[in-house]
Specification:
The protein has 429 residues and is of the alpha/beta class. Helix content is 41%, strand content 11%. The chain folds into two domains: 184 residues, Rossmann fold (3-Layer(aba) Sandwich), CATH 3.40.50.150; 141 residues, no CATH class. The protein has a seven-stranded mixed beta sheet with strand order 3-2-1-4-5-7-6. α5 links the parallel β4 and β5. The termini are far apart. The relative contact order is 0.15. The N terminus is likely disordered. The structure holds S-adenosylmethionine. The site of S-adenosylmethionine has 19 residues, from α1. S-adenosylmethionine binds next to α1.
Length: 429
């Protein structure tokens, strides 16, 4: 039987040599050459969602007022006064189920285009238009936005949850930026190896899940039972466990050159010529400048990048407050924070290799790197270190095929600040 990577799967676990963790592909498939990300193995959103006929981003809209309150807070945090959207033109790329669009539509933009290339998304949105949840003025466009063309420019361009995961995310974002009118706003999302480290660790359960069943629905059930306790941490979660595991555990992509994240620095670098930073969620940028000192050449993007590196450890664990890190002096140690970033990237690369080869052989490397990472964190992050230590115990059991809900203990409550939001303003010159 060939899996999605074209590798032969075996049906049983191999006994281990001392010190070796586990290999779950037959020796005939073992790669002796170092693993390189293969562009032909990259799977984009559109391909994965279309293949499985899923759109795993459904929000719980039973309490619409709460949904609207959350979106209202997000927009305000991004520096967008919700009422100011009335009569404006908006284009949203990758609206998914359109649940977030229901809020944007209720602000009564004059023009609202929704562009998605996934049949399941298109039918979910069409259903909302037919049932009055989205206005009939919304224009639904079936297109791969890498190829989409349109002469118009819009006051607001939304690309939420759909840029990291493209093969060349910076190029795609730049392309979508062309649809923004000068002086208009673009909202996008970012993620980094640091903000996703906790999820990266969870993804390491994938080979064992894939070995337990090759049936997609069964894999969803196994992963949902494995991570149910983890997701219970988010009492305010608005997504089903099944959607979350589909999107985060069963879907993997490796961008060109193995780049599977698109961080705030990546976004700013990609857009630097044409856009300037406006705001972010979470907010981390403190700007104490007197406005009269800022002339036409506002270096805001460079200032944001400086603050980003100071803020970085707070991306690793959503329980950690930036102020606490600052108080511990961590923000001053930018070299250490760059090391933290580097280690997280290394772990992500090994994760990709473990998933691509379905072999737990490199698991020890991950555990050594986590140990090094723990030593770089300030004492205030002891909960994070406890989470990493319990992960190291639990993942060895998972790698041995013990897929009952594991005693992951403190790992269950370790979550990073996975996805961040950015708002950017398009330069007028
Ligand atoms: C993870 S979902 C995000 C949905 C929603 N924006 C949210 O944040 O909940 C990504 C969406 O982008 C769409 N998408 C991704 N890449 C695309 C592409 N190249 N062309 C068109 N749609 C794409 C997918 O079909 C999906 O609906």
């Amino acid at each position: 039987m060939l899996d999605q990577y074209g590798m032969q799967r075996i049906q049983a676990f191999y006994p281990l040599r001392k010190g070796q963790l586990m290999t779950i592909h037959p020796s005939s498939c073992m790669k002796t050459t170092p693993w390189q990300p293969d562009p032909d193995h990259t799977v984009s959103f559109l391909e994965f969602y279309a293949k499985q006929n899923v759109i795993p981003v459904k929000q719980d809209l039973t309490d619409l007022a709460r949904h609207f309150a959350r979106r209202d807070y997000l927009y305000r945090t991004l520096g967008l006064v919700p009422q100011f959207l009335r009569g404006r033109s908006v284009i949203e790329f990758g609206p998914g189920t359109g649940d977030n669009a229901v809020y944007t539509n209720h602000l009564q933009p004059g023009l609202y285009h929704l562009v998605d290339g996934n049949p399941a998304s298109l039918s979910a949105i069409r259903h909302k238009i037919d049932h009055g949840q989205l206005s009939r003025n919304c224009t639904l466009i079936n297109a791969n936005f890498i190829e989409y063309e349109c002469d118009q420019q819009f006051d607001l361009v939304i690309c939420e949850g759909c840029i990291p995961g493209q093969r060349v995310p910076g190029e795609v974002l730049k392309r979508l930026g062309r649809f923004c009118a000068p002086g208009g706003m673009l909202i996008t999302t970012t993620s980094s190896a640091v903000s996703y480290l906790a999820e990266t660790c969870r993804q390491l359960c994938y080979p064992a899940i894939a070995m337990a069943s090759s049936n997609f629905d069964e894999q969803v059930n196994i992963a949902a039972s494995l991570f149910g306790k983890h997701l219970a941490f988010f009492q305010c979660s608005t997504r089903s466990i099944e959607d979350w595991v589909t999107d985060n555990i069963l879907f993997h992509w490796y961008g060109v050159n193995g780049a599977d994240f698109f961080s705030i620095p990546d976004a700013l670098h990609a857009m630097d010529d044409a856009f300037r930073f406006h705001a972010s969620s979470p907010r981390f940028f403190r700007d104490l400048r007197w406005y009269k000192t800022v002339d036409g050449n506002d270096p805001v993007n460079a200032l944001v990048l400086e603050e980003y590196w100071a803020f970085l450890p707070a991306l690793l664990d959503c329980r950690v407050d930036k102020e606490v890190i600052v108080a511990n002096g961590q923000s001053a140690d930018l070299a250490k924070n760059r090391q933290i970033d580097h280690i997280c990237q290394e772990i992500s690369t090994i994760r990709s290799r473990i998933i691509a080869t379905l072999s737990y052989d490199p698991l020890d490397e991950v555990i050594v790197l986590l140990d090094q990472l723990g030593r770089l964190l300030p004492p205030v992050m002891r909960q994070t270190c406890a989470g990493m230590a319990d992960f190291a115990v639990g993942i060895r059991q998972v790698a041995e095929g013990r897929l009952q809900p594991q005693p992951f203990n403190a790992f269950c409550n370790w979550w990073g600040r996975g996805q961040q939001y950015l708002s950017l303003i398009k330069n007028t010159h």
